Amino acid sequence: MQPIEKSPSKTSVDPTLSKIAAFENYFLVSGRKYRHIQPVNVQGQSGYSVETRQEKQSIPLMILKAASLITLIVPLIMGIGLFIVRKKHHFISNQSLNGQLNDQAQLKTDNLSKSVLQNSSTSGSNPQPTQVNSKILPPNAEQHRETEEKLQKFKTQAQQTLQAKNKQSTLVLNLSDAQKELLSKASKMYPKNITEPGIKMAQGGVNKVIFLESVEGVVFKPMESQEAAENYLKVVQNARETVANHNLHLLHVPDCKIIEIQGEYFIAQEKASLIADSYEGQRGVYTYCWNQPELSDYIQEIFSELLIFISKTHFSDVKYDNIALDQEGKVVLFDLDQSSAVLGLTEGRPAVSTHDGLFNYIPKDFLEEFLKKAKLHLDSSQYTELETKMDKIKDNAELKIKKQQEYTQYLKNNAIISSTQRLNEDLEKMFDDEKKQQFCAVVVKKINDSLSESFSLKEGRTVKLNTGASSDLYKEAQNIWGKSLRYITYDAQMNFKKLLNEVLEGLKTNGYVHKYKDLSPTRDQFKIVC
Predict the structure, then answer these.
(1) CA 284, CA 260: separation in Å to the nearest integer?
(2) Higher confidence at residue 142 or residue 493?
(3) DSSP-derived secondary structure letter, 62
(4) Which among 134, 39, 64, 141 is positioned nearest to 96, based on CA atoms?
(5) Taking a C-beta distance cutoff of 8 angstroms, is the pair 239, 292 a contact?
(6) CATH 3.30.1490 fits 177-270, yes or no
(7) Mind listing the pLDDT tens digit for each residue in 357-416?
(8) 264 strand-pairing partners
(9) Buried-most residue among 9, 330, 401, 451 (CB within 10 A)?
C-alpha cells in the first residue's frame, strides 16, 4: 500500500474518513482534532490509523456549535452518527499502541515504533505519512502492551538482582514410597505413550527429564548407572563451589541429589523458573539486555562472571539454553561438563554449532574488553589458543551487524514492531499455477502459527518449519498435488523441496518474508525470518 500524499496546503483524505472526522470533531471543543493517517486492517477488520493534533479554534465556528446545542436535535443527530461510524470502523490512535520494544533488531536504532504508532503532532506540524504494508497485519494492541509490561518487569528485577548478593539455594527432598514407584514407572515410558496420571516428561535426543506433579520444584533425570550419577553430582558440586568461591552471584547452579530406586539411579535437581524456555527465546532475552542502556552494567557483569566460571570449570557446552536467564535475572547453568574452557569461550560444542560459545554472544564493540579479561583467568596456552580464534569471531560479529542492518530495514519497510504480527493470509496472486498459490497459503498459515512472543523481534519472527517426509507440511502438499508428488524424485517438477523453495522465494520476492534457508541435510527443516 502506498502512503497517502500530503502537502501543507492540501491533505488527501479518504471520503469515508471525512464523514467520520465531521462527527468526531463536532464534540471536540479544545482544539484537539483527529487527523487521518491511513487505512489499516486490525485482525481482519477495516479501520483507520489516526492521530490527534492541536489546531487554533475558529471563533465563529465555536459560536455556531454553541447555538446548535440549544436545538437539542443537532447534537442528537451528530451523536447517533458518531455511534454508527464508531461501531462500523476501528481506530489505532497514538495512545492505543503506545510503547516500543527496544533492541538492536528494531526500535532502538531507528525509532520505528514512533514512526509506526506514535506520529507525535505539535501545533503547525505536518508529520510524514506512515506506510502500512498490507502483507503484514498491524500488531495486537493488548498483546503488545502485555509484552511491554513483561519487559519492564524483567528489567526491574534484573537491576535488583545485580545489587543483591543472594546465596545459592539447597535442595531438600524426601520421596514417599508411592512417589518412588511412580518415578520408576516413568523411567520406562516415553513422552508419547505416558498413560500414568501425575507424570509429565520432556525428551531431547536420548535424554529424558521427568516431572512428578506431586513433587513441585524438582526435575528427575534417569541415569545409566551409579557411576554416571556420581560423576554428574561431582560436576555440579564443583560448579557450585566455583560460584561460591568466586562470588559469582548472578550465576545459579541448581542443587541436586542422587535417588536410588531398586538399582535404578536418578538425579533429582531443582527446577528453574526461566524467562524463556527455548534456545531462540533465551537468545532474544540476551539480545534485549545488550541493547538496553539501563541493563548495560547488568549484562556485562553476567558475561564477566560467565567468563570466570568457564575459565575455572572448563565448561564447554556453552549455548543459550545452557546459560538460561530466569525470572529473577539470574543465569541458570545446565548440562555442565569439564571439557575445555577455550571451546566454551569460542564455539560451544563444534559438532553442533560453531556459532555458540561465550565470545560469539558478545557484541563487537565489547570483544577487546572481554579478551583482556580472559587473559587474567586463562593460562598462557589457553589464552594463545583463544587469540588465534578471535579473527573468526570478529568476522562473525561484523557479519551479524550487516545482517542486522538489513533486517532492521526490512522491519521498518513493513511497519513491524511486534514479534507476533501475522502475515496477511489474504494473499495477492503470486503464481499462475493454482496449486502453488494454494500451497503458498498453507505455508503462510504455518508461518503465522509458528510466530512467538519474544524479547527480540528477530528471534520471535524466526520460525522453523518441519519438512521431513512425515511432516504435516509434506502431507498437506500431497493433499494438493496428490500422490504424484514425491519427497525425493528425479522429476524436478514434482519434487517437494523444489516446490517449497519456489513458494518461499515467491513470498520473499513479494515482501512477505525477509529470507529463508533449507537446513538439510543436518535437519529436515526450513528456517524462515519474517
Answers:
(1) 39
(2) 142
(3) H
(4) 141
(5) no
(6) no
(7) 999 999 999 999 999 999 999 999 999 999 999 999 999 999 999 999 999 999 999 999
(8) 261
(9) 330
CA distance 66 to 196: 74
CB contact at 8 A, 291 and 271:
no
Strand ranges for 11-82 from DSSP E: 32-42, 45-54
Length of the chain in terms of residues written:
530
pTM listed for this prediction: 0.74
Q: Do residues 132 and 119 make contact, with C-beta atoms less than 8 angstroms apart?
A: no
Neighbours of 191 (CB within 10 A): 13
Nearest alpha carbon to residue 49 among 160, 177, 141: 141
Mean per-residue pLDDT over the chain, rounded: 81
SS (H, E, C) 422-488: CECCCCCCCCCCHHHHHHHHHHHHHHHHHCCCCCCHHHHCEEEEECCCCCHHHHHHHHHHCCCCECC
Domain boundaries defined on the chain: 15-140, 177-270, 279-409, 434-529
Residue 145 and residue 99 in contact, taking contact as beta carbons nearer than 8 Å? yes
Specify which residues 223 forms β-bridges with: 265
In the sheet where 256-261 sits, what is the strand order?
A: 199-204, 207-212, 218-223, 264-270, 256-261
Whether the bond between 350 and the residue before it is cis, its omega within 30 degrees of 0, is no
